[in-house]
Amino acid sequence: MRRLFLSLLLLLVLFSTSSAQAPPAAKVRTAPIVQEEVAPSKGFLGLLYYDRKSEVASEVAGQVERVEVRSGDLVKEGQPLVQLNTELLDIEIALATTRVEQAALQVKLAQKNFQRQQSLLENRGASQRKYDDAQYAFNNAAMEQQAARQTLASLVLKKKKSLITAPFDGVILDKGVDSGDWVKQGGEVVAIGASQALYIKVPVGETLLRYLEAGSEVEVVINAFETAMGGIIDTIEPRADAKTKNVFVKIRIPPLSRGAENMSATVYLPIGARQRLSIIPRDALITFQGKDFIYTIKEGKAAILPVHIVTFLGERVAADNPYLVPGMPVVVEGNERLRPDQAVMVTGE
Predict the structure, then answer these.
(1) Alpha helices, DSSP H, located in 162-261
(2) Fewest beta carbons within 10 Å, which of 1, 252, 327, 331?
(3) From 3.60.130.10, 1.10.287.470, 3.60.15.10, 3.40.50.300, which CATH number describes the 87-160 domain?
(4) What's domain 24-38+274-349's architecture?
């Protein structure tokens, strides 16, 4: 009886141990590998810059009352940047408004006198000289009224120009004034770079130009934040460096919420002719000790395979490993928790 009890206890221990060693089946989603004709690529280091920049200047002289932005702020077209003090200007506008009203009264009085002299002249009750004087006074009053209106309009426009606004959507590169500063007419207040004109300038060897085409999409990584995004080859500059023979390629990228001019970026550009490569969803990649791997499924278990990435294609990558064949399932969801030879349960593709 004691021997039977010990045997049952041993079996229970062995069963418990085997159960602990074999984790439960992991639920995963897969996607099939496909093959396409793509060009191999290589990472090139470039610098961010704004192709359109403006040193925003004040159109009128005045004292800075407040600055609405700081360096690095994102601004929209028409957004206030700097407000100049308008206290003296407001007084001048009030005075000019009064003068416009006075001129209107003068015109009204001169018009009545002119009409009276005109009527008397027609009835031969007034001399030609009085009629001419009345006509001159009326015309002169009308011109004085026009001059007063123009002066008022000029002052109102000057007040409007005292609020300096952003000429386009962009980022503040530099703030050149602070509250209390005196700004001359034409004096710079801020420097702004256009959000829609953010580029990366990349030097490449002249022998690679045959593989580059304007309008092509390329992979871009902002190194400071390890942020990946798509870029477009915009322009290939028509002049090579006399010594290195490198040619600058301009890559247009989307606006960045964080970023600075002259930051570095890695751009993956084609370096060879198109070839047939295996296309893998980027979600399938896992990184271990600086190398890339994927999980596939063999006999209901997870099998890990190294991957040699030849080029990046946005949300996909291309690899040239010979064992990656069309239709092979790769795990795209749940792979971050998998272990080699772990049982898996495919919940969908």
Answers:
(1) none
(2) 1
(3) 1.10.287.470
(4) Beta Barrel (2.40)
Top-tier CATH class for 54-85+162-192: mainly beta
Q: Where in the chain is the domain with CATH 1.10.287.470?
A: 87-160
pLDDT at position 125, please? Answer: 67
Within 13 Å of residue 290, how many CA atoms lie on the same side as its CB?
0
DSSP-derived pairing of the beta strands 74-75 and 188-194: unpaired
Residues sharing a CB contact under 8 Å with residue 107, sequence separation 6 or more, in sequence order:
138, 141, 142, 144, 145
Q: Specify the pTM.
A: 0.65
Burial of 3 (0-12, 13-18, 19+ CB in 10 A): exposed
Domain limits, CATH 2.40.50.100, in the chain:
54-85+162-192
- Measured over the CA atoms of residue 217, residue 219, residue 222 and residue 228, the dihedral's sign is positive
Query: Which tens digits make up the pLDDT trace of 272-329?
Result: 988 999 999 999 999 888 899 999 999 899 999 999 998 888 788 999 999 999 999 9
Question: For the chain, which residues score pLDDT lower than 70?
Answer: 1-23, 125-126
Q: What are phi and psi of 256, to 5 degrees?
A: -110, 135
**Six token digits for residue 52:** 């359109």
